[in-house]
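In response to reviewer comment 3 from the previous cycle, which asked for concrete evidence that the modeling workflow produces usable outputs, we include below a single protein chain processed end to end. The sequence was submitted unchanged, and the resulting structure tokens are shown without manual editing.
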Amino acid sequence: MTLPKIIYDKNLKVLMDSMSVSIFIKDADSNIVFMNQACEQAWQVNFADVMGTDGGQLFPSEQQAFFLAADKKAFAEKVKVEIEEWIWNKSLQQNRLYVTTKMPIYDALGAPLFIIATTQDVTERKCSEARVQRLTHLYKALSEVNQAIVRMSDEQQLFPLICRCAVEHGGMQMAWIGQSNSDNQQIRPVAKYGQHLDYLDKLVISASADVPEGRGPVGSAFRENKSIIINDIDSDPTLSTWQNVMASCGWQSVAAFPIYRNNQPFAVFCVYHDQKDAFDESAISLLEEMSKDITFALANFDREAQRKNDETSSRLAALVYETSSEAMMVTDASHIIVAVNNAFTEITGYAESEVVGLSGVILKSGKHDAAFYQAMGHQMRLTGKWHGEIWNKRKNGEIFPNRLTLNTVYNEDDSVKYRVSLFTDISQQKQDEEMIWRQGNVDALTGLPNRRMFHQNLEQEIKKSQRSGLPFVLMFLDLDDFKEVNDSFGHAMGDLLLKQTAERLKLCVREFDSIARLGGDEFTVILSEVDNLKGADRVIEAILASIAEPFRLKDKQAFVSVSIGVTLYPNDASDADNLLKNADQAMYAAKKTGRNQFSYFTKSMQEVAQKRMRMAVDLRGAVHGGQIWVAYQPILDLKTGHIVKAEALARWTHPALGAFSPAEFIPVAEHTGLIVDIGQWIFEQVILQVKRWQQVYRTDFQVSVNKSPVQIYNKMSRYASWGHQLMQAGLSGKSIVVEITEGLLLDANEVVNKKLLEFRDASIQIALDDFGTGYSSLSYLKKFDIDYIKIDRTFVSHLSPNSDDLALCEAMILMAHKLGIKVIAEGIETEEQQQLLIAAGCDFGQGFLFSEALPADEFEQFLLKSSGLKTSGWH
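The workflow returned the following structure tokens.
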């Protein structure tokens, strides 16, 4: 029999070997006559060892019989046969899902010659599809839960719906929420949904009978205050007691998540799935988000109840706030009316102009005798107060019952100054308005981030602050008397007021600050990179003034104010939960001082300001005093391993206080304008060093220099341009790379555009630092001529195969290369990170894996010592 042409055609064989798909050819007797390199690699076999055999040694006997039958079918029916089958891969020692296509080839007389087969491993793709489907279900469940929180008023309504969402929308087989008893010894279900609910009592009794020992996932989650994830029930030794029960239900995976109330374990949210490995990192994150939503909702229930109590108490004490259900009338010591509110007019029919100056007796109905008023007057003289039911008369003569509260405001000599009457028409009881805008999906109303996005923004702001060293301010805002607007004008007008509030807040902050609506009348503002606390105070004052302006609600006019709690990161707290709690507590303190106020969580602002002032004074003499020096960190060409660049980094060693972090003194230098002189001095040092290193090391060596936005915007600089200084030193503009931040491009104006063009005209290249952490946008990458982007270390520090950070790095590298931009990865600390970045096509890298930042003389020694080396790491 003639062998296939590929055996003889060298070019065709090279082509087949270059293909990533596995290809093999069998003759009419199903014996292997050709196998490409991809096939050999996939099955870890040499073609010479299987040539002329049917390949039976590669597969279990039952699968080999199946494949031979497929060969016969293809020859007999003269059709292409496609097979999708789980196959045991002996070399990998695991089952893998393969798609195999077999195409029969015949000679001119129709006799079978060969079968050409291709095989592709689709295991990961199928698993990925299943994972996407699971996550889609969970996203839908989480969305349903968020919407439910808006509607629900307590856990008796919320918990059953949570369980139903987890099953119907989240793909779980069964879900339940268990609550501990008074002594935390047992957890009993308070809500459940799904299949096999009759087995739940058996599981609960055995799994949580002794919570302190944490037996089972439910007890462990409650006792240890953490999520318990078991992705293979059959093989987990901690579930030996309950494996038979769970197996009878068809459950393969189980997960339990603690729920808190008042910062204490309160309940457990538990879900079961019929697949192994159902809870990967993303699924766990979504389910934990769901449990956090429950915790947050419980806190909101409690807080709303407390808020209502506080508002009622404040209203009765201050006697100055109007509501739609209570009319207010103020009279002097002679019972002459001096003021009434809108509710008074609505209830009695009297306009303010009609009653001011008249006696309060105009409301008398005639239904009470003299003894009634004498008893009222006696109590008022004794206590200054009276409360009870009374009949009054409207302007139209109608008599109506009302509940009246009388209070007295005294002069300093204890004589009566005013009598304040608060009364409610109890003949027309009003239904309480539906609870206003709780946590959940409320973005459509204001266009602001919702609570979930706020938490993401807050976590990102913390990371950003940790990198830059600049603090930020978190404000918690609560509208005063917003309920009265809703009660008076209805929710449509209240919604309009919230929209207008959002627009007013936007006008009070910078474009890159963050505003969010947590729900109801609660908002948050994050003031990013606050290096001047006076600026934060100005924003707060602007917000207070803006919200206090009248709101035009179609044909209505409303007045509200706002109470603001303020906390500072990192002075007051280092994590998101405590920051939000601090801001919330500060807001309540502001509200208790009389509304339309703001309050800081601590008084550390003054201490910080004093420290910054002392640092600014010391910094003025630091440059000329020889305290400022330049460190250099190498940047490697990842393909060759050669050091081709370095980044110049400012350092300050105080003679008495020691080393200051750049994150501490650079913001002070920028605020005071000293960064201009410091930046010039650093640039002069860099010119000297890069000139020498181009002579002793390599002629194309570059040094990156950070350029502060303050330097860019400085119009009064007495220094020549960097391009001119390089030319005077006999250096090419390509000797220097200017590093700028994304925020500078975001706020780019004529000054910024002109400065960037000056760099370009001088052949000075531009690098975009901290790329991906804030305002990354294709629009300014296209608009400005950027040579490098520097992937921020937050994406590099957690690099691992199949991680989200790796996917983001690969995407940024691909995008940059498509735009003709080179990529530098910062913060490389491990061999694995380096290899992953090389595989992703990253051009350059820097980090502690190669070297820390060194003084110029040590850097030069390191540079010369490492020249010619191509190994992956030096220390």
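Confidence is low (pLDDT under 50) at residues 205-213, 316-324, 429-441, 869-875. We consider this sufficient to address the reviewer's concern, and the full set will be provided in the supplementary archive.
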